[in-house]
Design a protein that fits this description.
Number of domains: 3
CATH class of the largest domain: Mainly Alpha
CATH superfamily of the largest domain: Butyryl-CoA Dehydrogenase, subunit A, domain 3
Strand content: 15-25%
Helix content: 40-55%
Low-confidence stretches: none
Order of helices and strands: HHHHHHEEEEEEEEHEEHHHHH
Distance between the termini: 18 Å
Bound molecules: acetoacetyl-coenzyme A
Radius of gyration: 21 Å
């Protein structure tokens, strides 16, 4: 089995790392404290080709492979976890379904602007009463003549406050179950698309998380994304890819927390020597490093399966559940290495701990990932 990266992948990773270290890391504490969308930095990421990485060159993207995307997501998230999720949603939850399910006209209309950073996208599946049970859509789509009329509420929408375009999931006919669900591409400046509320959160504070209210939103028939009645498949397929991005975000947060704890352990003295000389600290660092490497391998495997157009749903669920829980453990241990300073805002350890937590929840909770994995292994074995 080949574990080495190509020279293009290494170059991309190094470019993203340099950008994260120079432009994101020095600002991440301020982004967190102010909770303001990092517009200039997202533009900078777009200039590097990071906002539509896998979009085909014919549609204005750079046509990179999925592993390159995972590498860049790790680096960007190490610098700023909020920037990581902004990038992940645009790439995985917006560009990817438009590229995979969109008509030629839809691809030409949206992808060049999304890939260049001229526009930003969001993905609206969850509702106030519909989270893990994503099929229980109550947002209603009615076809009146040649117009779709949409009414309902969506929430937990990353990029919701800034997005120019939204991939929206809605129920046309609940008597058909999941086969009554449609997906749409919605310009967010249309009358009836209302950002009702922005959530106040524990972490990833510089990315918006919004509640969207759809009030007699009227869409032309060509706003339908994919086939009528196949919207749930669009959503599930999209999340299979999105989970690789979130896994890489979790990995980036964990790696940053680990590196800071490792460096601190060589600076901080106790009992006449750096605390890194103590086995109690060494064992923590050893576990952190081991779990980070294991998470990275699962992410790379899922990325390679997606690249090969294989069945990657189980692999991406494994990568997400493992990497997000590693991120929680590593950021917890990092605070322990810093001791009291880890609990204070003087060091970034507490921010990493807060930022990591959401990766166990969004784009499918850990429980949903285990459900996906269990269904797959019971059917197909390992
Ligand atoms: N790809 C394509 N189609 C799929 C699919 C996949 N991975 N999984 C299922 N489907 C389709 C199939 O056609 C299936 O029909 P068949 O049985 O005929 O094959 C149909 O969907 C129904 O599948 P299930 O019976 O498995 O559906 P379910 O109701 O049991 O739900 C679930 C499955 C895995 C629990 C799903 O509801 C799920 O993933 N829930 C979590 C939702 C989630 O991740 N939400 C996050 C929202 S995005 C976000 O976080 C916001 C953000 O901005 C970051």
């Amino acid at each position: 089995m080949e574990f080495s990266l190509t020279s293009e992948q290494m170059m991309l990773r190094d470019t993203a790392r340099e950008y994260a270290r120079n432009e994101l890391l020095p600002n991440a504490a301020r982004f967190d404290a102010e909770g303001v969308f990092p517009g200039a930095q997202v533009k900078g990421m777009a200039e590097l080709g990071l906002m539509g990485m896998m979009v085909d060159e014919a549609h204005g993207g750079v046509g990179m492979d999925v592993l390159s995307y995972a590498l860049a997501m790790e680096e960007i998230s190490a610098g700023c976890a909020s920037c990581g999720v902004i990038m992940s949603v645009n790439n995985s939850l917006v560009c990817d379904p438009i590229e995979t399910f969109g008509s030629q006209e839809q691809k030409q209309a949206w992808l060049p602007k999304l890939a260049s950073g001229e526009q930003l996208g969001c993905f609206a599946l969850s509702e106030p009463g519909t989270g893990s049970d994503a099929a229980a859509q109550t947002c209603k789509a009615v076809l009146e003549g040649d117009t779709w009329v949409i009414n309902g509420e969506k929430n937990w929408i990353t990029n919701g406050a800034e997005a120019d375009v939204c991939v929206l999931i809605a129920m046309e006919d609940s008597s058909k179950g999941v086969k009554g669900i449609n997906a749409y591409i919605v310009p967010t400046d249309m009358p009836g698309f209302v950002v009702a509320k922005n959530e106040k959160k524990l972490g990833i504070k510089a990315s918006s998380t919004s509640q969207i209210s759809l009030q007699d939103l009227r869409l032309p028939t060509d706003a339908l994304l994919g086939e009528r009645g196949k919207g749930f498949n669009v959503a599930m397929h999209t999340l299979d890819g999105g989970r690789i991005g979130i896994a890489a975000q979790a990995l980036g947060i964990a790696r940053q927390a680990y590196e800071e704890a490792r460096d601190y352990s060589m600076e901080r003295h106790a009992f006449g020597a750096p605390i890194g000389n103590l086995q109690a600290i060494q064992f923590m660092l050893a576990d952190m490093a081991t779990e980070i490497e294991a998470a990275r391998l699962l992410i790379w495997q899922a990325a390679m399966l997606k690249e090969q157009k294989g069945n990657y749903g189980r692999a991406s669920a494994m990568a997400k559940v493992y990497a997000s829980e590693v991120s929680a453990r590593v950021t917890h241990k990092a605070i322990q290495v810093f001791g009291g300073y880890g609990y204070s805002k003087e060091f970034p350890a507490e921010r990493h701990f807060r930022d990591a937590r959401i990766t166990e929840i969004y784009e499918g909770t850990s429980e949903i990932q285990r459900l996906v994995i269990a269904r797959s292994v019971l059917k197909e074995g390992i």
